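Illustration 12: GTP 3',8-cyclase.
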Amino acid sequence: MAERVIPLVDQRLTALRAMLPERSIPATGLLADTRGRPLRDLRISVTDRCNFRCSYCMPKEVFDKDYQYLPHASLLSFEEITRVARQFLAHGVHKIRLTGGEPLLRKNLEILVSQLAQLRTVDGTPPELTLTTNGSLLARKARALKEAGLQRVTVSLDGLDDAVFRRMNDVDFPVAEVLEGIAAAREAGLGPVKVNMVVKRGTNDHEILTMARHFRGSGIVLRFIEYMDVGATNGWRMDEVMPSAEVRARIASEFPLVPLDPAAPGETAQRWGYADGAGEVGFISSVTQAFCGDCNRARLSTEGKLYLCLFAANGYDLRALVRGGASDEELASAIGHIWQGRDDHYSELRGTLAADTGTGARRVEMSYIGG
Ligand code: SF4
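Figure caption equivalent — predicted structure in token form:
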């Protein structure tokens, strides 16, 4: 049956104005949104380009050869990204994750990593600096990223069977090269390496046990992600979602599991350990077990828009402030003002009328703001 693909409406062209609040909001590290959620985790998309065409994120039919990527001049420079990130740290961010598209496609990324590694959290400690990648360029880049100050990587890998993997990335990319990238990351000390598998019922769910057998006992943390209705182009259907409970049952049928405590507040994955001590697996269940309650994540698009939720329809244009002569205090104040007004909790609303923005605006594409 042909994949359902919905034409793209270019969200990149719209933005909400990032207002400077009348009353300045100083960065105290204690910022909270309307639900009392602090700002702890900043995901920075450094490119809207990717060399894969995973159908659940960047379907080839939409992101085809005529697709217009953002002009380089519109992207935040490394210096601008670092300046904006500094204000987020002042508001309480402790963790920075670099994403894309495929972040390793951004030239000289290690320069940005080294700049971000110089920053400090409100406690005076370096931020936790991580990166999510499809692993295709990791074997070449791992050592330089580590030397620049990157601490950990998460690699997206949707199967071990080469034919399945090539079908999932839809650019015929061999799985062996991603496995080489994972090995290089471990060798470079970018661990513990995490591996994320998006499970799509009827497409790669038969790979669940293969993946578990391969990574258990390796020190690599394997996480299973429920297929999500991100963006507006992947033709998402609920009957292609395999709930985490079902994935867990499939693994437990061969390897008994025990629940583990969250490693940090706001963590997206539910952690489970192999009862025989052979490591842990995680389940990211945005569809069947929403985790908006303690979501402390903000997302910065590659050209400087602040999104408050992965499923948001619009972002706030911080670049206009950065390039418009705003001071650091003003920038921090605007970020504070935006976060204080945040009420996003899409996953709790999914499937209800309330989930619809009511403005007809469609959700932003994950390839644009990062997962
Ligand atoms: S749906 Fe939005 S608010 Fe909820 S956990 Fe995901 S990013 Fe956070």
